[in-house]
Structure to design on (315 residues):
């Protein structure tokens, strides 16, 4: 009785397995490896049905025993052949994943390049378009200076000149922040050093920057990624961490370039970044950009212990 129940359960399970495997054949594009494995499941079910019939009829005959054995041999051949051939299926899946990653990388690269080109275009339009107009206005006001004699007019003219100078300085600063010419012309170390110097001038926070790279250059894509990451990390510390000090080290070690960032802010629980709705575009953008140039981005923080970040990429 126990064997009868076991045979029935085996038949049901193997029929279900065969049906599921046969349904997957379309997904595998009818590859021979999966056809062999699916058919072997079906033959297993047939073999168990034969065993059940023999069990109900009584002692099995020699002929049925031989049929059962040869079905077992056939099943074994089909399984081993399917297992050998299924390697091609896994290779196909691996190729598909590789193609997907390459496509994703091309798309991200195109997005980043488009973003940088738009930054450069906007910075150029701002500098070359609005800048000359304000300069012309300043020249026109300067020509009025000898003609204005009363004190009130002189004060108004002086204030107007001051505001125009402020506007010209702001345009220059905005243009440089959008597309820093120092990064393009002199490299990452100079660009970061200049950016840090501007922040230090505000006295809002103290930033120490060290580097052993001096005038060494990286690929332009990697320099842009590093620079944007530094700017974003500093911005986050100023706006959210309440830090009074930041330490940044940019170093080259043989084939690798590393950027180490540390602040003494209030810190936070990094587990809150697991949800995309909480993560924020800043950190997500850094991760995406760094990964796109085959680099590694690691962010560590804890409440009351500040925040540290590491970017590592191949030179």
């Amino acid at each position: 009785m126990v064997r009868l129940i076991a045979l029935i359960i085996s038949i049901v399970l193997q029929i279900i397995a065969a049906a599921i495997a046969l349904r997957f054949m379309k997904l595998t594009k009818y590859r021979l490896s999966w056809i062999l494995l699916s058919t072997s499941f079906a033959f297993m079910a047939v073999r168990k049905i034969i065993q059940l019939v023999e069990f109900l009829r009584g002692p099995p005959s020699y002929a049925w025993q031989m049929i059962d054995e040869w079905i077992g041999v056939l099943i074994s051949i089909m399984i081993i052949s399917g297992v050998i051939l299924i390697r091609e299926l896994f290779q196909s899946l691996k190729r598909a994943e590789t193609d997907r990653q390459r496509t994703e990388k091309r798309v991200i690269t195109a997005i980043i390049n488009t973003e940088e080109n738009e930054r450069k275009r906007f910075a150029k339009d701002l500098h070359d378009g609005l800048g000359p107009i304000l300069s012309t206005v300043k020249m026109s006001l300067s020509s009025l200076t000898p003609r204005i004699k009363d004190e009130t007019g002189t004060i108004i003219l002086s204030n107007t000149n001051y505001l125009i100078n402020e506007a010209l300085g702001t345009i220059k600063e905005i243009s440089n922040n959008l597309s820093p010419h120092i990064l393009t012309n002199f490299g990452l170390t100079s660009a970061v050093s200049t950016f840090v110097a501007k922040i230090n001038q505000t006295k809002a926070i103290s930033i120490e920057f060290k580097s052993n790279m001096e005038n060494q250059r990286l690929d332009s894509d990697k320099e842009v990624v590093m620079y944007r990451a530094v700017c974003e990390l500093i911005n986050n510390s100023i706006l959210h961490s309440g830090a009074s000090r930041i330490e940044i080290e940019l170093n080259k070690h043989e084939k690798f370039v590393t950027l180490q960032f540390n602040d003494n802010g209030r810190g936070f629980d990094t587990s809150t970044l697991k949800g995309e709705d909480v993560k924020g575009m800043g950190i997500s953008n850094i991760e995406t950009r760094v990964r796109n140039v085959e680099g590694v981005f690691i962010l560590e923080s804890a409440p009351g212990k500040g925040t540290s970040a590491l970017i590592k990429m191949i030179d």
Remarks:
- The CA atoms of residues 120 and 179 lie 5 Å apart.
- Residues 180-315 form a domain with the Heat Shock Protein 90 fold (CATH 3.30.565.10).
